[in-house]
Design brief:
Oligomer: single chain
Radius of gyration: 18 Å
Helix content: 55-70%
Structural class: mainly alpha
Largest sheet: none
Distance between the termini: 41 Å
Number of strands: 0
C-alpha cells in the first residue's frame, strides 16, 4: 500500500466514517480475522462468512483485500484519535493537552489489541510505517496535537525559538519509541508515571501564550 502524505493521512483518519451498517459489519469481521490470524492470513472469504454476507458483497464495498485491510486500519486509527480528542477536550491549557494526549496515546498504543497483534505477528508489514517510512504517521499525529492545542489558544506561536509543531513532533516520536521499545529505566508503568515524565521533561518545552 502506498503511504499517503501527512495531510491526506490526517484527513483520512479524522474524517467521519461514511460506511453503512453492512460495511461496519464487514469491518468488524475483518478486524476479528486480523486479530485471530494477522494480516497475511486474513482471508476475504472467511471475513465474508464471519460477517454473514457474500464475497461479492465484501468486494462491492472494498475492491481488494488491501483496501479492506486499509479500511480497518483507518477506522482503528480514527478511534485512536477520537480517544485522545475526548480525553483532552476539557483541559484548559496547551501544555495540559499535550501531556494528556501523550499519556492517553502511549496507554492506548500499549493496550490496543490490533497494534499489539501486528507487532507480534506481522512486524515486517507494520514497522516500516512507524520507523523508516513513518514520517506520514509522525506528521499526521504532530499536526493533530497542534490542532488540539489551537482549540485552546488560537494560532500557536513559537516560544523562545521553540516551534509548537516541533515540540508536538518530539511528543509523537517519543510515544512511538516507548511503544516499540517499552523497556526503560524511566518509571513508565502507570498513567501517573507517564504523566509525571511528560510534565517534567516535555511540557517544559512549551508555555501557553
Amino acid at each position: 500500500m502506498r503511504s499517503p502524505d501527512s495531510a491526506s493521512l490526517l484527513d483520512l483518519v479524522t474524517a467521519a466514517t461514511d460506511t453503512d451498517a453492512v460495511g461496519e459489519t464487514i469491518l468488524d469481521a475483518a478486524l476479528a480475522e486480523m486479530l485471530d490470524f494477522g494480516l497475511r492470513r486474513t482471508n476475504v472469504e472467511v471475513v465474508a462468512k464471519r460477517a454473514g454476507v457474500s464475497r461479492a458483497t465484501v468486494y462491492r464495498r472494498f475492491e481488494t483485500k488491501d483496501a479492506l485491510i486499509q479500511a480497518v486500519l483507518v477506522r482503528e486509527s480514527h478511534r485512536f484519535y477520537t480517544v485522545i480528542a475526548e480525553a483532552v477536550s476539557t483541559l484548559p491549557t496547551v501544555a495540559e493537552r499535550l501531556v494528556e494526549g501523550f499519556v492517553v496515546g502511549v496507554r492506548h498504543a500499549r493496550t490496543e489489541p490490533l497494534m499489539n497483534r501486528l507487532l507480534a505477528t506481522d512486524p515486517e508489514a507494520l514497522l516500516p510505517y512507524l520507523t523508516t517510512h513513518g514520517y506520514a504517521v509522525v506528521a499526521a499525529s504532530r499536526d493533530f496535537l497542534v490542532w488540539q492545542g489551537e482549540q485552546v489558544a488560537g494560532k500557536l506561536l513559537p516560544v523562545e525559538n521553540r516551534d509548537p509543531a516541533g515540540v508536538a513532533e518530539i511528543f509523537v516520536r517519543l510515544a512511538i519509541s516507548f511503544t516499540l521499545t517499552p523497556q526503560t529505566c524511566i518509571p513508565f508503568d502507570s498513567d501517573e508515571d507517564i504523566r509525571r515524565f511528560a510534565t517534567s521533561y516535555l511540557a517544559v518545552l512549551i508555555r501557553d501564550a
